[in-house]
Amino acid sequence: MPTIEIDGKALDVEKGKMIIEAADAAGIYIPRFCYHEKLSIAANCRMCLVEVEKAPKPLPACATPVVDGMKVFTSSPLAVEAQKGTMEFLLINHPLDCPVCDQGGECPLQDQALGYGKDISRFAEKKRAVDDKDIGPLIETEMTRCIHCTRCVRFGQEVAGIMELGMTGRGEHSEIGTFLGHSVDSELSGNMVDLCPVGALTNKPYRFSARVWELADHAGISPHDCVGANTNIQSVRGRVKRILPRDNESVNQCWLSDRDRYSFEALNSPERLSRPMVRRDGQWREADWETALHQAVSGITGVIENHGADRIGALAAPTSTLEEFYLLQKLMRAMGCHNVDHRLRQQDFRDDDESIMRPWLGCRIEDLGRARAILLVGSNIRKDQPLLGLRVRDAARGGAKIMAINAMDYDFHFDVAHRIIAAASDLPGRLAAVVHAAHEGSEVPSDVAAWAEEAEFEDAAAIASALKDAGEDAVVVLGNAAASHADASVLKSMAQALAQQTGASWGCPSEGNGAAAWVAGCVPHRAVHARPATGAEKPVSNAMEMIDRPLKSYILLNVEPTLDCADGQAAKQAMEGADCVVALTVFDIRDNVDADVMLPVAPYSETSGSYVNCEGRLQSVTGAVAPLGEARPAWKVLRVLGNLLDAEGFDYVTSEDVKNEVAWSQMPILDESPRCGVPAPNARRRPAGALVRIADVPLYRVDALVRRAVSLQLTADNQPAMAQLCAEEAQRVGVEEGDRVSVAGAAAEVSLPVRINDSVPTGSVYIPSAWQATVPLGNSTFVKVSKA
Amino acid sequence: MLSQQSENEIDLEIAKYPAEQKQAAVMAALAIAQREKGWLDEETLDYVARRLEIPAIRVAEVATFYSMYDLEPVGRHKISLCTNISCMLRGSEDIKKYLEDKLSIKPGQTTSDGKFTLKEVECLAACCGAPMMQVDDDYHENLTPQRVDEILDAME
Ligand code: SF4
Ligand code: FES
Ligand code: FES
User: Fold this and answer.
1) DSSP string, A558-580
2) Cβ B108 vs Cβ B119: under 8 Å
3) Of the four, A222, A292, A628, B111, which is 20 to 30 A from A169 by CA?
4) CA distance A47 to A217
5) Which-ligand-closest: CA of A50?
6) Residue whose CA is closest, atom 7 of ligand 1?
7) Interface of chain B against chain A, CB under 8 Å?
8) Half-sphere exposure of A247 toward its Cβ, with a 13 Å CA cutoff?
9) Does any ligand 3 atom lie closer than 6 A to the CB of residue B155?
10) ipTM of the complex as predicted
11) Which residues of chain A lie closer than 8 angstroms to B64, CB-CB?
12) Reported confidence tier of residue A23, pLDDT bands at 50, 70, 90
């Protein structure tokens, strides 16, 4: 291990490290712009010049590897002169517009100019000006400020995996921009704002809305996916202004997905509900809490008296906190009812009784990035869990074999070694074929054989052997499309069989904070910690059954059933047919939900609460700002409902008390229960002339919050509802891009514009869920598409 | 998009590098495309990108970096005047002014008769003879207004 000396301090440094890394580790400051520990070394800004003994010229600390015996001086006269010289050059073309620049106050260039800049410029020639670029709704540009450090370019190439920004031109004419002025569409684009060391790339929705020194920091957790990304929620006078990543190497590193970062706009949405509302005689009116709670309670108790406690049910959004999940199920069970669930998009519950809870990834997030083989099943991991997608990309870059069995050839940002693209309804068979292949001569369980029967074995053997080769370093991940699949239990059982056979680990992470819902017992058949729920032996209803066999009363926790449930159409009708629907909601949802009482509750930024991510990590935060208007944290509302309904044990003082009652802090116990055998495939044949619907939920439609984040709604990823077909299928239907088709599901027909998308296989059509326009199709697996 | 001959030449260039390093052929591919088309329009850049399986912006970076690539139609003769530091110190700004007046165009423009295009370029590695310009394939050094007249007036 080389020993070097920096500013007289002797350091042992790993071979191959750069001077700047050694200095950072030792807490010695070296100025810099282009260097970033997560990016490759470009050494183009020259701000990090230091003096190295025996070197004739100052050397860039970011690009000079340590050598045994090296003596480095970071602030000798020579080093400082070099740094000051660099600064003078950087400022030649940089505008002096700090007073109107959003980066002001958090600008490395501004800070370092203070340390190394002169108070006057000797440059009398013309400064250059660069046209600003419109690169989309999330990033604002002010390109004259750019210092060409290429951090944003390298981020795209190396981390986000799609090179959208580049540096065109040369010398003084260099400019950062996109090809032909396209927008930057990466689902991780906001990180470029953080990386840009000047105000060239800034946060568009946040623009000019605060000064950084006014912002109060508050630790938060992003609720939109199972990663539990650590955030810094920044606010001014009780209003959230923006969200930044909080470093956590094990979870989100220093990144955030755009969904985590920009969903904050919904927190300040005009659609926020700030006062309780009650509906009487068809008219909505504002009410005080007492009146509203009273109406809610009398509505629910009325239903219980007239129809029995099993005629009520509760649905919770997967984005809810552990405490909310816990109190909701406790409240329901106190009323003698087990109908409580958070698995709104799940359609197949056949394994509920036998299988253990498994809402996990199957390995730690960090391990995913180090895996040697990953099989994605029914997963668009890049868009569904962008930060997990990054880890898969890391794994791929480290040489791992990534494989996929999907209903659509998703545009991944990593190389896929083997892919099986088949109609959604054929995925279980295709996965079974891999399990079959993994048995190699040993006896194949009969259910596996039955499912594998008709599947093609092409690529199955290659996938099985790649998993075996990687052994313990292999992971099988079931994605959102698998979890909401009509045969999800089969996919899970097959994944488990495959894991057992190959030595891989496997998981099926839930949406949002769903893992916490399992811990909190927010499922009908299990209590806290997934223990069997006493009393739940009698027939209880899961999320799907609550909709299919409509109840008389519903309690909704941030759910818009039409958009959040697997069968939006049936959910809509169920709400319409109920006697009493009590909605605990962040937004005024009267146009979407046929509710009777709306109780305003606090979104993630305004309530304390806990999250359990896909690796079982429990993370608790407090509210960043006070609830808007009369809104209250949902756990408090549920507590009061408990009191009003005379339920036992609802006298918590803080959400901590609730968490302590759940008493769970360990990593999940991943003991396997025996694999449950699955029933033989029922001959659910595709009706003649029908296409198999791919019903994925687009990433900016997943929950009530992101659906109201206006800038995210404007992104290229958020294409409005369309029927996407491959060119071949479109030709068969006789339509072209932009035409309209009528799509007939089991119950209704809708008209949608056509988009040609060759990643959809023939025989399938991609019609996204969670759009009003596609709700009437319900959860039909097969649809008929014809020219409108 | 390109003639068979150009395509073959591009294939030949690609074959010079390892299979996963196709992008290394980008400069040659652009030169071949430019020779055939006269200049490189956006469609051509995009085509080269797809041909080499690299992002289009990557091709645009290369094409805009080197002044030898023309991203706009050019006249019959291309004058590339160096205004980099050595040439600047030796009076390239005056030569630029002289050329602009003589041809009534600014750098980046083409004379109305389509004869000359004037480009301002970075160091062409002929500093010893600064100020200098390149006209088509020839270097001309130690320029004075008089030399410029002689060179340009002799052109067809
Ligand atoms: S835009 Fe910002 S990050 Fe990108 S090169 Fe310019 S200064 Fe660097
Ligand atoms: S930080 Fe070393 S050259 Fe930019
Ligand atoms: S500076 Fe003009 S040729 Fe080098």
Assistant:
1) S--HHHHSSSHHHHHHHHHH-SE
2) yes
3) B111
4) 29
5) 2
6) A146
7) 42, 45-46, 55-58, 60-61, 64-67, 122
8) 4
9) no
10) 0.86
11) 168-170, 173
12) very high
The contacts of residue A476 (CB under 8 Å, 6+ apart) are A362, A374, A375, A377, A467, A495, A498, A499, A504, A505, A506, A507
- Give the whole-angstrom CA distance, residue A441 versus residue A458: 17
Alpha-helical segments (H) within A645-691: 655-662
Among A136-145, A624-633, A671-680, name the one with the lowest average pLDDT: A671-680
Token duo for residue A301: 């108790």
Percent of chain A beyond pLDDT 90? 89
Give dist(CA A266, CA A602) in Å, integer.
12
First vs last Cα of chain B: how many Å apart? Answer: 31
Tens of pLDDT along B118-151?
999 989 999 999 999 999 889 999 999 999 999 9
Asked if A304 and A312 touch (Cβ cutoff 8 Å), the reply is yes
Per-residue H/E/C for B19-87: HHHHHHHHHHHHHHHHHHHCCCCHHHHHHHHHHHCCCHHHHHHHHHHCCCCCCCCCCCEEEEEECCHHH
Q: For residue A319, give the DSSP letter.
A: T
Reduced 3-state DSSP string for A700-717: HHCCCCHHHCHHHHCCCC
**Using CA atoms, how far apart are residues A391 and A401, in angstroms rounded to an integer?**
13
The C-alpha atoms of residue A776 and residue A750 are separated, in whole angstroms, by 7
Return the axis-axis angle of helices A427-439 and A460-470, rounded to nearest 10°: 60
SS3 label, residue A408: coil
DSSP letter assigned to residue A587? B
Half-sphere exposure of residue A780: CA atoms within 13 angstroms, side-chain side: 27
Question: Average model confidence (pLDDT) for chain A?
Answer: 94
Which H or E element spans position A742? Answer: strand A740-744
* A156–chain B nearest CA distance, Å: 11
pLDDT band with cut points at 50, 70 and 90 for residue A357: low
> How big is chain A, counted in residues?
788
Instruction: Say if strands A401-406 and A597-600 run parallel, antiparallel, or are unpaired.
Output: unpaired
Give the sign of the dihedral formed by CA A738, CA A740, CA A741, CA A745: positive
Segments in chain B below pLDDT 50? none
Question: What pLDDT score was predicted for residue A630?
Answer: 97
Region A632-640: what's the mean pLDDT? 98
Per-residue pLDDT of A363-402, as tens digits, reads 999 999 999 999 999 999 999 999 999 999 999 999 999 9
Q: Which two tokens stand for residue B88?
A: 């600047």
Question: In the numeric block, which tokens belong to residue B90?
Answer: 């030796």
CA distance A124 to B128: 27
Could you tell me if A767 and A777 are in contact, meaning their C-beta atoms sit under 8 angstroms apart?
yes
- The CA B138 to ligand 3 mean position distance, Å, reads 15
Q: Please tell me the distance from the alpha carbon of residue B46 to that of residue A161, in angstroms, as a whole number.
A: 19
Q: What is the pLDDT of residue A747?
A: 84
Can you give the length of chain B in residues? 156
Nearest CA residue ID for atom 6, ligand 1: A146
Q: Are A779 and A488 spatial neighbours (Cβ–Cβ below 8 Å)?
A: no
Strand partners, A756: A725
Query: A477, A453 in Cβ contact below 8 A?
Result: no
Cα–Cα distance for residue pair A552/A310, rounded to 1 Å = 9
**Using the 8-state DSSP alphabet, how is residue A363 labeled?**
S
**Token duo for residue A42:** 């470009």
The span from the CA of A571 to the CA of A270, in Å, is: 26
pLDDT tens-digit series, residues A761-776: 999 999 999 999 999 9
A137 to chain B, minimum CA–CA distance in Å? 20
Exposed, middle or buried: residue B128 (CB in 10 Å: 0-12, 13-18, 19+)?
A: exposed
Pairing of strands A230-236, A59-60: unpaired
User: Is the sign of the CA dihedral A720, A485, A525, A519 positive or negative?
Assistant: negative
